[in-house]
Q: What sequence folds into this?
């Protein structure tokens, strides 16, 4: 991606901006994603919880509180940007060497998802 | 049995023959490297370096490789053994299968046989300013620095690096990004950043926190796994990432603080 | 590749280098966990969007999880998410070597505390969802 060149004065990177989202997102997803997958993707099909718990009316009432909506936004926002940054590096590891394209695709997708998320929750 | 080097252990009872495949390359004759196989009668107590020395002394005088201390201090006998970066003086024959493959360290150009060109590493190492940068000029009259045992303990483990380059051979990001400053150099930068006598963290960050520095690391952790001295460069780099992120936002939000030292957060006290 | 100065560069294969060693395979699986976390996050964003569109749209979304292929994906998402958690917490002492009263806290204690926090968060989220509506 970048090369250390003794003839060029190096510059402090602006990676901390995206890396702090990656790191915060990594922690949040490590703490919460397994249980969220279990709850929202597996509990009903596996018969652990009744489908009525995920009814439209119940979900609406759960999300009625602005605080809950803010927490949901925070969790998903960080998860999305965690993924975007890690995938940018992973495709490079897999041999696809265009960092610019990876930035465009993954950060772009995360940005679109963030906007949809915000629209859905407002 | 002729033993020309005195460091070979006395021949004991655990005799065994090892089939050793060695990568050979002579830049004057060869267009590309090839493997040459030797049958080496060895003792279970030998280390891999003894095997290589036996080949050199008894089977093939043309084999080139680096070694010196035979006791895991000089760091010059690192090689790939069965694909694993290995300090050959600290790795025993008894732990090896009947057949081994010895190659020069990966991620470096091969100069000849098992010798790699480590110029790029030396350049990267010096780029991180691996020496104490004091806050003020210090004269002889000022006397020596004082340091508490607890302050020494903060960075002690990072002083154990012997520059054997196993971590560079193990690191996929060194392979994928030629310019990556790399594990050992960044661990040594961290060693000085953590030193209570040092105030050079923000100076080092020019290189350490550049795109070619810590941000090229994706925390594979292989460097720490292969390190024969338990230096743990992977840990050092993650700690620098956190500190550099803090420094970045402090400098961004409070630009007037930029000239000041940003050391106190990590050095546990200062002087 | 032989260089002008005689040195020879040996490069591992650009696409398959990580298949040579278990530690690289485990690393790549850890990195790929983010893909599954990302897919799940996008599904949740989509679910919230469908929720905002009304009952019919949201019911169509929840019905999706009954499909066999989505169920397989869900199991994979769970396994990769749990692997991410494990790999994330197991290295916490490296990134955060915490000290207490001047003494370094043992690595096992830092890891254990994070694993415990993971368990507590999971139970709390589950309980909050299952019993939250009743409040």
A:
């Amino acid at each position: 991606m970048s090369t250390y060149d003794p003839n060029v004065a190096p510059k402090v990177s602006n990676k901390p901006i995206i890396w702090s989202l990656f790191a915060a997102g990594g922690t949040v997803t490590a703490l919460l994603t397994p249980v969220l997958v279990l709850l929202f993707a597996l509990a009903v099909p596996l018969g652990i919880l009744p489908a009525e718990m995920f009814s439209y009316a119940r979900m609406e009432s759960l999300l009625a509180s602005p605080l809950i909506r803010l927490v949901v936004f925070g969790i998903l926002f960080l998860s999305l940007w965690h993924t975007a940054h890690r995938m940018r590096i992973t495709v490079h590891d897999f041999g696809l060497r265009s960092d610019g394209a990876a930035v465009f695709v993954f950060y772009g997708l995360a940005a679109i998802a963030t906007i949809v998320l915000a629209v859905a929750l407002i | 049995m002729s033993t020309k080097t005195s460091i070979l252990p006395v021949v004991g009872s655990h005799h065994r023959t090892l089939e050793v495949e060695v990568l050979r390359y002579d830049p004057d004759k060869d267009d590309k490297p090839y493997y040459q196989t030797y049958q080496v009668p060895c003792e279970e107590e030998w280390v891999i370096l003894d095997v290589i020395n036996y080949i050199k002394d008894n089977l093939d005088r043309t084999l080139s490789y680096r070694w010196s201390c035979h006791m895991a201090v000089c760091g010059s006998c690192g090689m790939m053994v069965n694909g694993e970066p290995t300090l050959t003086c600290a790795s025993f024959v008894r732990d090896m299968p009947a057949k081994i493959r010895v190659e020069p360290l990966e991620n470096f150009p091969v100069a000849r046989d098992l010798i790699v060109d480590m110029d790029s590493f030396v350049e990267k190492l010096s780029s991180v300013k691996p020496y104490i940068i004091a806050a003020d000029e210090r004269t002889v009259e000022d006397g020596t620095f004082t340091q508490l045992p607890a302050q020494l303990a903060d960075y002690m483990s990072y002083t154990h690096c012997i520059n054997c380059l196993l971590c560079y051979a193990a690191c996929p990001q060194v392979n994928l990004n030629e310019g990556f400053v790399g594990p050992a150099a960044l661990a040594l930068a961290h060693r000085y950043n953590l030193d209570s006598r040092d105030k050079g963290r923000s100076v080092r960050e020019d290189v350490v926190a550049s795109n070619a520095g810590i941000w090229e690391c994706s925390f594979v952790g292989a460097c720490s796994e292969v390190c024969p001295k338990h230096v743990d460069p992977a840990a050092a780099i993650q700690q620098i990432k956190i500190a550099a992120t803090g420094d970045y936002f402090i400098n961004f939000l409070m630009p007037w603080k930029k000239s000041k030292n940003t050391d106190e957060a990590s050095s546990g006290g200062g002087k | 590749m032989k260089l002008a100065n005689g040195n020879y560069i040996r490069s591992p294969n650009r696409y398959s280098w990580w298949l040579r060693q278990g530690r690289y395979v485990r690393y790549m699986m850890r990195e790929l966990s983010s893909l599954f976390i990302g897919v799940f996050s996008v599904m949740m964003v989509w679910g919230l969007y469908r929720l905002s569109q009304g009952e019919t749209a949201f019911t169509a979304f929840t019905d999706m999880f009954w499909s066999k292929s989505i169920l397989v994906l869900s199991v994979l998402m769970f396994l990769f998410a749990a692997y991410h958690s494990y790999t994330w917490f197991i290295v916490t002492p490296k990134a955060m070597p915490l000290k207490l009263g001047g003494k370094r806290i043992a690595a096992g204690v830092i890891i254990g505390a994070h694993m415990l926090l993971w368990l507590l968060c999971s139970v709390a989220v589950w309980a909050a969802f299952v019993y939250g509506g009743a409040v």
